[in-house]
């Protein structure tokens, strides 16, 4: 479904990788690995369509993602290094705003449920500024509970999470794959994801 | 196909570089030729003005500079748009090369205008529509240059610059028609002069000077484009070969 | 589709309320500039009355310009901008939403405040009306045009200055017609012509500007 | 000990150079405010000359005030402020260093630029001298006093406004003596008295202000 | 050497922990554990002197840290969730600026060496803005190579690091302890630190 071919990434004057190709089908997980600075984040941003590749192309269901535009973005859920939450808003407000933006509006009960799943039950009405590092990450991850997108691009989702939360999120990814979703994941932590097919892709050393 | 091929051929920096090198001396020669002719007409042939004295001769620099400042902006925006739309490397470089020359002419127009304004209107500067919009033009050039200079990645710099250049295009008709749309201190358009007695000589002088400026602008822009090409393509084989050859 | 845009506006407004700074600092800046000038210039009422339209419009323009760097910068820093760019709505529409929200928390309060400050300068009631009207018509253009500059300078070295450098030339016509409208009313010429030009600028600014802005944002996110 | 402070100044200056925004945006803002007024007010040279000292001083004050919110905010956001508070130097001294760096990238360039802009207004050479001198003496006070406000409002909801609210009353004396000095020169009274009052304000501002600032910073970090 | 007694932490209206006490001697490591939001970061900030405890006191070599002030801070190295690096400056400039501030100036060669140790050899002159997440963290951690402070307070130092870097930093902490230093550490990742005595402190659930 997601096919990349001959991808090249150039940052500054440095070529991070070239001639990279992979294919990812329904229910499969692509596990991106590589040292710090090897270009994992850059690759994920290419897969989103945020960063145009220096060469090569990316196809979703046979069509290049540039051509698909909004139709591709409608099936996409990207979680980056940054949490994309507003410190002034509460977890509840953050979650509902991001859901509306993704065109999957969420009523308050469902949103509260999602937050509860991530262990934020008592904090739903506290401005995110007061949350601990891990709690902020959990707010960002709460989107995964309800958004039904087919392609998940997750850039180190487990950062700052405690072990219980890591397992929880791994479970969410597993369930997503089971439903026939696709996922691309980077992480430096050893994590056990209950997935059928896991494709490994190791990016060259920087 | 063949037409398209030609275009791509000449728009490749590699073919353009030597071609530009050959053209530059010709444009310099033309610039000198027209410049000398224009000066002769302007300073020797054209009579002294009854009201303005010798001071009016500044018109031979002022008007061509004003024209060029507007014209170059249009050309620059054109190249920038082309680069943005089709990803031609060379046309973005063209836009970048034209900007400083355009800024120079805009500055010259303002400066000569101000020099002239002191005796004519009794002030170096007034905030009228023509003067203000010409100042805006200078700001736009400076903004374009500053924006490109402050973005490290040349590809991003090109695209951002192109957007700015295109947005700024609206200013050019405003400058041109400002004297018509608002009643200003500044002189109206050419027609007024055409009615006066010495119109023909002056018009010829101005046109010659304008042509000189035009040729100068092309020559300088080509030189600058060559430099930009070398800098941007310094990692490619042909540039390395070229540089080795020059040594 | 429009739904998502409205919710974006609502979110930005809620953020503005939560922070308050966004609204109040623009307003407060406006008040300061307007009230400081009499202090620096001296209190002759005749002179002040003559200067009022200019001072008020310049202050409104500066206040708007100051709030611009943050228009996209906060979203950029915390990763929200990526999410906006990845949402299934056209980015231009989203930008339009943000411009609308920006105007609601800067231009609109300025407009509402201006007649009160104008009173300070002893302006006649027609002049006050013209002032309010010109601000109401003109300030959306400031937000719209400003968005282009904010997007172009996002994350760029020397962003703040560059922004002013890029935006200012484009603001000058708004300033001239805006202050012109008030002056024309004061001198009895009638503000009609100025106001319709201002309206044209605003229409162009609000409906044309989001597209270059969206393009510039995509470039900034690369 | 002083070594560390100097190195802090050096770091801040280098940051200023690297960003350029810090220096140039203040300057550019100053230029804009000063040049926009003739646009809004109308170009009669006599009137402009009379208004020049006020406009220039107000503009300098506003430009300084604008750069204040970022005085500590950047360091706060990226964690540097914690490190500053945890360094073995007295925090007051560190603040003094930051105030010095702030003046070097805002007050000093403003002072150097002011006579050039003053020329635009057709000021006499004595007036220009008085203007420059008053800015040179007065601007350090703006940085010093401003630091207190910046620290008190750090990370506070509605910081921007609050900052202006807190700082402005303290700035007004500086403005009055500063613009007063220039006017006194123009009217031939002599600027001596104004300038020495200004000097006193600056001494107080620069050497007294860092201590409350440091205390406020510690509170903000809790 | 570092003794805490009867510590209580109140955030908002929530008491995160109370009556917390521990003692840490030379060469010992305090390994703080706890769920997200259990107050680890808050405790570390108390130990720094940034956050005054709601009750209880912290003593360093027998003296309360409030009284010691600068003398305490001179022996302290704190690394928080935030990297405290300037994106506009290069890694080299960042490292040297922070060294000077800590009163342990560093000449260029030593600084380059420290950066090299952390695998930033080729990036010393690139503005930090262009670095990857992990590389930024490495810049922040480079201080640990040369600063000779006796008490290290490290708040999740391993976040965003790849496995090689995690081992390296663990080694740095081990060497510090060997030299007779003290360290307090929080992390959600399982890490093996070559330390003599490791004291564990588990903060209650939130
Ligand atoms: C800084 C001040 C000035 C600026 C920015 C300025 C700008 C311009 C521009 C842009 C044009 C070309 C536009 C066109 O062809 O319609 C122009 C033409 C001209 N300017 Fe100026 N000008 C300034 C001052 C002056 C002064 C003081 C005078 C003399 C009183 C003057 C006399 C003319 C004349 C005679 C033309 C030619 C008009 C024509 O033939 O079309 N300008 N100026
Ligand atoms: N302008 C530039 N010049 C040189 N190198 C650059 C430039 N911009 C980015 N880089 C390099 O590109 C790489 C970007 O890597 P990226 O963020 O994709 O890494 P990553 O694999 O996600 O790393 P991490 O595991 O640390 O998150 C880094 O090595 C960075 O140093
Ligand atoms: N004003 C407030 N009202 C209520 N609770 C607050 C307030 N401020 C902070 N908190 C709570 O205090 C706790 C702060 O925890 P801290 O940052 O010390 O956690 P941590 O153990 O470091 O967590 P992590 O592992 O996620 O980094 C959080 O649970 C947060 O929700
Ligand atoms: Mg990464
Ligand atoms: Mg923590």
From TrEMBL, chains A, E:
Q: Name one GO molecular function term.
A: transmembrane transporter activity
Say which domain of life the source belongs to. Answer: Bacteria
A single GO BP term for this record reads:
cytochrome complex assembly
Q: Which InterPro entries match?
A: AAA+_ATPase (IPR003593), ABC_transporter-like_ATP-bd (IPR003439), ABC_transporter-like_CS (IPR017871), ABC_transptr_haem_export_CcmA (IPR005895), P-loop_NTPase (IPR027417)
Annotated ranges, domain ABC transporter: 2-203
Keyword Transport included in the entry's annotation: yes
Query: Which keywords has UniProt assigned to this entry?
Result: ATP-binding, Cell membrane, Cytochrome c-type biogenesis, Membrane, Nucleotide-binding, Translocase, Transport
Cell membrane recorded as keyword: yes
Q: Which NCBIfam families match?
A: ccmA, PRK13538.1
What is the name of this protein?
Heme exporter protein A
TrEMBL record, chain B:
Q: Which family does it belong to?
A: Belongs to the CcmC/CycZ/HelC family.
Ranges of residues in domain Cytochrome c assembly protein: 31-186
Q: Which parts of the chain span the membrane according to its record?
A: 26-46, 66-86, 98-117, 129-149, 161-182, 202-225
Location in or out of the cell: Cell inner membrane; Membrane
Query: Which domain of life does the protein's organism represent?
Result: Bacteria
The protein's name in its UniProt record? Heme exporter protein C
A Gene Ontology biological process term: cytochrome complex assembly
Q: Which GO terms describe its molecular function?
A: heme binding; heme transmembrane transporter activity
**Chief location of this protein?**
membrane
Report the membrane topology from the UniProt record.
Multi-pass membrane protein
Q: By its UniProt entry, which Pfam families does this protein fall under? A: Cytochrom_C_asm
Q: Which gene encodes it?
A: ccmC
Q: Which InterPro entries match?
A: Cyt_c_assembly (IPR002541), Cyt_c_biogenesis_CcmC (IPR003557), Cyt_c_biogenesis_CcsA/CcmC (IPR045062)
Q: What does this protein do?
A: Required for the export of heme to the periplasm for the biogenesis of c-type cytochromes.
What keywords appear on the UniProt entry? Cell inner membrane, Cell membrane, Cytochrome c-type biogenesis, Membrane, Transmembrane, Transmembrane helix, Transport
- Asked if the Swiss-Prot or TrEMBL record annotates the protein with the keyword Transmembrane helix, the reply is yes
Its GO CC terms are:
plasma membrane
TrEMBL record, chains C, D:
* Compartment(s) where it occurs, according to its Swiss-Prot or TrEMBL record: Cell inner membrane
- This protein's UniProt keywords: Cell inner membrane, Cell membrane, Cytochrome c-type biogenesis, Membrane, Transmembrane, Transmembrane helix, Transport
- Say yes or no: keyword Transcription regulation present: no
This protein's GO CC annotations: plasma membrane
Principal location class? membrane
Q: Does the keyword Cell membrane apply?
A: yes
Q: Name one Pfam family in it.
A: CcmB
Q: Name one GO molecular function term.
A: heme transmembrane transporter activity
Membrane topology reported for the UniProt record: Multi-pass membrane protein
Which sequence ranges are marked TM in the entry? 21-42, 54-72, 93-118, 130-154, 161-182, 194-221
Q: Tell me a GO biological process for this protein.
A: cytochrome complex assembly
According to its UniProt entry, the function of this protein is described as: Required for the export of heme to the periplasm for the biogenesis of c-type cytochromes.
PANTHER family recorded: CYTOCHROME C BIOGENESIS B-RELATED, HEME EXPORTER PROTEIN B
The record's comment on protein family reads: Belongs to the CcmB/CycW/HelB family.
Name-wise, this protein is Heme exporter protein B
Organism, scientific name: Propionivibrio dicarboxylicus
